[in-house]
Each structure stands twice: as C-alpha cells, then as structure tokens.
Amino acid sequence: MKLLVLNGPNLNMLGIREPDIYGKETYPQLVKLVEDTCAELGVEVEVYQSNHEGDLVDKIQAAYGAKDAIVINPAAYTHTSVAILDALKAVALPAVEVHLSDVKSRDDFRQVSYVRLACEKTIMGLGFQGYVEAIRYLADKYQK
Ligand code: DQA
User: Catalytic positions, please?
Assistant: First the structure.
C-alpha cells in the first residue's frame, strides 16, 4: 500500500509550539515514528508538511492514481478549508483525519472540521499515537 501522510501549518514547529498542548517531541520525531510504523507494516509512505493551503491541495491532487490512502492533519486549515475538502473529495481516496490535541474540548472555532466530511475516520487527542492508529486502521482495511 502507498500512503500519503500530510501535515498542515505550524506542525513543523512541534516541540517548540505550545508544548503543553502539542507535547515536547519534535516534527522530525513524528516523521520518524510514521516512517518506522509504515516500515513495520510494509506500507510505502511519503510524509509531507506545508504551511500553505495550495501546496496541500497540490499534494492531494498528485496522490490521484499514485497513492492508495491519505492520513491528514490539516492543522488550522481543518477549520477553514473548503479547498482541502474539495481536493480530498476529488481524488476520492480513503482518508483519516488526525489531530494531536483533543479539538472537541478546545475553542469553539475548532469545533468545525470541513475536512472531516471527506474522511472515513477522525482520531484526536492521542498525540503522536494518533498517527500510528490511523496508519494501522488504513493498513488493516486497504493493504492487499
Ligand atoms: C491540530 C488542531 C488544530 O485546531 C490546530 O490549528 C493545529 C493542530 C492538532 O493536531 O491538534 O494546528 O490539528
């Protein structure tokens, strides 16, 4: 299985950024965990992070015909981006939404997720482990 793991704005600042909410581990540590998890499961993975909405849209479009599934933490774009929602719908790949924090117990403006409308599952509040769960879920369901 070929998997795309997409991370949105400010996730490159993990370890520095609000550690009480997002933890002290860094973005490179997250990438390593994702790569190690995929290697164990025999999943081929590409991990990509961008602070720019259009870059994330481009990456989702490029997954069409090239990837089998997507794990996405759209970060702040979760709550604003119809463009990312539409891109996920356009490629129609199985997708899982991940959030490090428990967004449902946070600000009102974080209660809306556009992206969720194109995802078959949402995992939140588990920190880095949420990515592991998302990868395992997709591998169990779609790995041939
Ligand atoms: C986040 C939650 C979002 O509300 C926030 O804007 C982020 C990170 C999370 O992983 O918990 O940047 O997606």
Answer: 22, 99
Nearest to 5 by CA among 57, 61, 45: 45
Question: What b-and-e string marks burial along 39-70, b requiring 16 or more CB atoms within 10 Å of the CB?
Answer: eebebebbbbbbbebeebbebbeebeeebbbb
Domain 2-142 CATH (choose: 3.40.50.80, 3.10.105.10, 3.40.50.300, 3.40.50.9100): 3.40.50.9100
144 — pLDDT class (breaks 50, 70, 90): confident
In this prediction the pTM is 0.97
ipTM score for this prediction: 0.99
Q: 88 CA to middle of ligand 1, Å?
A: 18
Domains of the chain, by residue range, sit at 2-142
